[in-house]
Request: fold
Amino acid sequence: MTRPEPIRVLIVDDHPIVRDGLRSVLERRADIIVVGEADNGRDAVSRALHLQPDVALVDLDMPQLDGVGVVKELRRSLAVCRCVVLTMHDDDRHIFDAIAAGAAGYLVKGASGDDIERAIRAAASGQILFGEEIAERVAQAAVATRKEFKGTVLFVETHDFVRKPEDSPNPGHGHHEFGNAETYFLVGDALGKAL
Reply:
């Protein structure tokens, strides 16, 4: 199902070369429009409130208000705008802080334009999407904490990543099994609440 209107994106990064590169990649997509840019966290929140984007693509290392603060503030004051984090940080603290703040996606810089596009599309459709390495760590954390994962899997270049309890050969075990298939993205509708 296609959206009737283009996906409106706000790019938030303190490096002009990164913003320029992201704009160039995204503007090649006919149904994605970059409505604005911000080079610091406070400006990002202000511009988002004014421009009303569907998705904000947010770096974590930002002056004045960091990316986690931007995600929290936009979740509180502009719930229709979903935030996808695009950062150089791949450590657990940054990942789980962003998820707890309400990020609808998390990619590490170096992700391809196609990866970024998928994350934006997933966020705009109300899903949560992570790059492969991040998805594996989130899945491991969910299993380790024995919390019920209430999300779904987006099958992109993959097969059988999560087996739901009712589909398991051992249905009484009560939790999701995470396979080692070649998964590209994990999507969860309520992952932030699950962890």
Q: What stands out?
A: The longest strand covers residues 32-38. The chain has a mean pLDDT of 79. The two ends are 30 Å apart (CA to CA).
